[in-house]
Amino acid sequence: METFTTARPLVEHPDFTVQKELALSSLDIHSLDEPVRDVVTALNDMSFCFTIQSCFGHFVFKNKEPTNLEPLPPTEIEGAIEYRIAYVALCVQKCEPAARFLDELSRIQQIDPKYIQYGSADWFWDRHVNSYVIQVESERDMDKDTARINYQEARYIEELKRDVIVRIHALAKSCLGLM
Asked: How confident is the model over 130-140, as pLDDT tens digits?
């Protein structure tokens, strides 16, 4: 995220309902990376939340397409791999359930703070106040949309991004169960 910043405090958001309706009416779930579709659906099902953008993250190497979702090969790839970051950007309404949700979402970064960041992004906040991002990217590249990494780091990120998506989905489903 080129405009990644620390998480901002929740503020009043009088246009939340209108923005959520507009976002959901223009969402084509099938245009999203398959591994994030269930997460996006669960987040959008919460009354106090809607997604802005998401990406499962892509490894581009050799002749692979920029939207490649194939797992890395089991044998090492020579040279640098371009990693396009995995992230979920969402907007929430200022309310107690959203504050609790964000607190739990922020805890996901504790898995590995050097590779998982939680915060806001100026670009999103300018369009949707109370927008937050959780991303999987090395700390050294956390303010970039892409990074050049080696095979060993790519393998680690591959496992980490799957874990993060699973945890976000579980968190969203648990919040839905409380509603």
From this structure: 999 999 999 99
